[in-house]
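Quick one from the shared queue. A colleague (R.T.) flagged DNA-binding MarR family transcriptional regulator as missing a structural entry in our internal table.

Convert sequence to structure tokens.
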Amino acid sequence: MTDEPQSRWTGPGRSPGFLLWRVTLAWQRAMRAALAPHDLTHVQFVLLASTWWLGDHEEPPTQQRLAAQAGTDPMMTSQVIRKLADRGLVNRAPDPRDARALRIVVTPDGREVLAAALRDVEQSDAEYFASVDDDFVTGLARLLR
């Protein structure tokens, strides 16, 4: 006897996981379009923006701190930071407190690229999420706790 698939949802449009999947894919398309003129991938943008934010509000982050902030894999973070450094958007310097760690700093060119990309990303976000209210954002934040 074979079990038949069963779902508690009345259809895919009622499944929160499936809806989140579809929304994520559509939002990622919007982000790729917003970032294309800046020659940045979404992960490059997130790591560049996180580096800038942490550097301006705390201290220049180590790659470990940056990965923790962005929720990215440390090895992948290192590879992306290397690409951003090759483009001259960030500098990596030894941490004066820990010779094994590198501190990441956004360069003037990186700030210029980030400023333009951030405007486009925030505009795209505003347009994409125009139909949802602050409760939606609060609900998303609760899912990350």
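Residues 40-143 form a domain with the Arc Repressor Mutant, subunit A fold (CATH 1.10.10.10).
The longest helix spans residues 108-128.
Added to the table.
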